[in-house]
Amino acid sequence: MLGPEVGRLAEDLAGLAPDPVAAVEELLGPVAAAALHREEPAAALAATRVAAGPLAAWVRAFVLGAAVPRRALATAVPRTGVDGLERLGLVVTAGAGDDDEVRATVDLRPVGVDDAHDAAWWLASDQGASVTGAALDPGHVLGVGGASVTLAGLTVRDHRARALDLGTGSGIQALAAGRHCDAVVATDVSERALAFARFNAALAGADLDLRLGSLLEPVRGERFDLVVSNPPFVITPRGLVASAMLPAYDYRDAGRAGDALVAELVAGMGDVLAPGGVAQLLGNWEHRAGEDWTERVGSWLDASGLDGWVVQREVLDPAQYAELWLRDGGAVRAQDPAGWDAAVTGWLADFAARGVQGVGLGFVVLRRPAGRPGMRRVEEQTGPVAGPLGDHVLTVLAAHDLLSGLDDDGLAGLRLLVAPDVTEERHLRPGDAGPRVILLRQGGGLGRVVTAGTALAGLVGACDGELTVGQLVGGLAAVLEVGVDELRAELFGQVRALVADGFLRPVAP
Fold first, then answer.
1. DSSP 3-state assignment of 87?
2. Is 32 helix (H, G, I), strand (E, B) or coil?
3. Which band of pLDDT confidence, cut at 50, 70 and 90, is reported for residue 310?
4. SS3 content of the chain, % helix, strand, coil (to 5)
5. Residues 431-466: b if buried by 16+ CB within 10 A, e if exposed
6. How far apart are CA 361 and CA 316, in angstroms?
């Protein structure tokens, strides 16, 4: 599949547009582009019928899966040629005539990663159900979807020596890691996925160490400074996996019962993280009757021997969860109502056998600390996220390190600054002399909102890095006519929480 023609293709694709992601969006227009993001191609097909030029021909063939005349596609790849695309296994042709049809056999589109590097690549993957009109093959290799974008935005982007992309799929996380890591190992249980990742790395001019194997097996005994994973975490009833409606998909089914896959990964991550190393993975976990989900998932963190932070972003009930993943595989109830109903019923029975009342969706951050693990955060934050979280994760980890060794006298000696994304809202009723509610709102990070009393709002408003926390509390105590010790007791816990969540940042001595 690889050879000099990949290099020629890379040159051709680079010539289609300097910013291909933006160019495709502009070509399609906002309505069609938004529909395509929802995997509804009709509007995009209509837009490309009236558009002309090499990029339109490429999008029509390789993004929308439509047949295009050989002549039109040839203008997009003057160095590679249509014959070169065929030798690479990317198209099938009906003939050698200019008007003969050419069809793409893969999806090959520009993709962007919304992180600190604002990177973009041309990425090949299998065509989706919206193109083929059929349920996905069990060995289907995904392109870049919502989960991929979430993980890329979550990943810390400081310089790291060695990175591991566990379950690489078509390789997008590994390519992103290669921009700030000296060496990247990428693993997958699927040979087809690794073939796509190999092609995409060659197309991008990236050097990846690709290995075949399940989960952590291919890297036993090795250590990494960064691990990222969008693992096969879907909770699938084992008894239904052989059915036509619910085959075992390589990209999402790991053959474990319930949520054991995520528990296993979290517990095993300590075996591969180097000191100071950070792992970030997406996951699903069960909410079981009679158990607090935070303690259940928290026990996985305890078993890892690492610092851990779990954030639940959404909760689905059992029926919603079953329907989500049936649709994900390309199943449509109208095409097979009996099969759909049987699959949902089986899914619900599997959940009921374990007392599952809901499924949480979110992410896990793990770190090997220099000393004993001391970070154990398990929480739910469901609001919208404004942008990439990688820098915020680094801020939270650094804040934990600062606060874990800081007593109240040490806190009193800190000089703090309000983070630039933090705003204050004051809510008053007409005629009120003062606000009834004061909110501190985080524009970045997880978009947290904190209700502040008058004293806390006054302290935060005065955090310009000049005075220490102790000096600010002393001044507030005089203004409010309360005792300093009383005010310290009220505010210090709240100040710690604001530092821990990135609202307030310490000024370097």
1. helix
2. helix
3. very high
4. 40, 25, 35
5. eeeebeebebebebbbebebebeebbbbbbebbeee
6. 8
Are the C-beta atoms of 163 and 208 separated by less than 8 Å?
no
HEC states along 399-427? Answer: HHHHHHCCCHHHHHCCEEEECCCEEEEEE
- Ramachandran class of 239: left when φ > 0, alpha when ψ lies in -120 to 50, beta otherwise: alpha
Task: State the Rg of the chain over Cα.
Answer: 26
pTM over 0.85: yes
- 49-83 pLDDT, tens digit each: 988 899 999 999 999 999 999 999 999 999 999 99
Measured in whole angstroms, the distance separating CA 207 from the mean position of its chain's CA atoms is: 23
CA distance 64 to 41: 7
For residue 229, what is the DSSP state?
A: E
CB half-sphere exposure, 35, CA atoms < 13 A: 15
Question: Dihedral, CA atoms, 140, 145, 149, 152, nearest 10 degrees?
Answer: 0
CA gap 259, 264 in Å, rounded: 9
Separation of CA 28 from chain center: 25
Q: In this predicted model, what pLDDT tens digit does every residue of 147-205 receive, in sequence order?
A: 999 999 999 999 999 999 999 999 999 999 999 999 999 999 999 999 999 999 999 99
Single-letter residue type at 295: E
CA angle 500/505/509 to nearest 5° reads: 120
Reading the block at residue 159, the tokens are 């310089």
